[in-house]
Amino acid sequence: MPAISFLPFLQTVPFGTRVLTLALVVCSLGAFIIRSLAERHPTATGPIPYSAFPWLVLVPGSSLIYPWTFLISGWIEINPIEFIVSVVTLPLAARYLERVWGARELFKFCAITVVGSNIIAFGFSWLAYFVTGQDSMFLYGSPYRGLTALQTGFLVAFTQLIPEHQVQLFGALKMRVKSLPGVYLLISNVLTIILGPSPYILIQFGFFVAWAYLRFFKLSENGEFRGDRSETFAFANWFPPVIR
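The structure corresponding to this sequence follows.
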């Protein structure tokens, strides 16, 4: 029986993509192990929510004490289904972008999208608390975590690079790449209404941060100008014609 080796597959994955995928796996499994050990402690009385670990995930009421969570929380998936989706989609998307941009620009894009989205989420949570007075929901409730913001950012980047490329969803539905961010934003709105803002509203924040960075700040390949000021990448073009 021939030996099964993952080495040929790993050799096709660029270095930066490997680092990002490894960070996702290590941070997510590490958070799961820490929570499991805490629940086995003699003083534990039941399941412990991840919001009890504000030094690990983004809890708006405590985030200023643990500023590193604005970055590392983006690499922690606490739901098994979300973890599987992220561990599959991250290397697929990052591998393509790394070959176009290079590892350094890929790292920069990921960091800006994750941190920027979490900063907006932090401000949103405090604003919602001032309006409603519900600190248990907006400041210390479900923490912000996971790759939802970055996944949206990847879709925005693909829309810039290959907007007319068609993808097939669920084996039957065909859709252009430029339509995928809108679908993801619609899913975000539904989940936010049903399940609450955290973490699904990060999809909307990730869309805005990624678009703003690519539109105004990202250096071109030759370093002569910043951003993509083309009409096709304008903010209004993300909406149907009647709304524009």
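The chain has one domain: 7-238.
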